[in-house]
Amino acid sequence: MRKYLKILQKCRLFSGIADDDVIKMLGCLGAKVESFDKKYTILPEGYPAKYIGIVLSGSVQVVQVDYYGNRSILSVMNRAEVFAEAFACAEVSSMPVAVIADEPCEVMLIDCGHILHICANNCGFHQQLIYNLMKDLAAKTIMFHQRIEITSKRTTREKLMTYLMLQAKKAESNSFEIPFDRQELADYLEVDRSGLSAEISKLRKEGIINNQKNHFELL
After folding, report:
1. pTM to 2 decimals?
2. Is residue 115 domain-shared with residue 85, that is, in the same domain?
């Protein structure tokens, strides 16, 4: 586990916890590391909601598929980021979403029950871990509200421009890259791909944006 320490230092779940304590904690929590190929379903929809995941390399997508097979990308988690914690902490019986490898990746999985219930060793850093988990959940709530701000817009154009402006603000630049290809962007915005492509073309012609694949510039 020590070889992952530099990555875990950047994970908000372990903020304020000494390196040696992180290593001890992982053993206490029964953390396990697994590797997955691109498009592999790490946590399927309907799977028991008990694990918190940490991305050690690559990236993963949290997706939801409705009754008719329409796919929505709810979020993308990159290295040192946490996923599935809300469902595990809520102790829902099964995952209402799926977590899929967006590219070949390594993931650390921790049984949430080991976090929420203090172990017999009464580790001093355990309270800090729970505090960090609550902060992470609060940050995810903010992200969720941002996505609602995007998808609640009426038109494809409004959804796209709202998303691009939020990405520009996050990058602190009018030139930035997004973590989606065209189909994935359509899935995230919950719009039709052909309609999205047409809107991007219109915005380019109007001199509002430039783009090359997943690189965008607001003009």
Report:
1. 0.76
2. yes
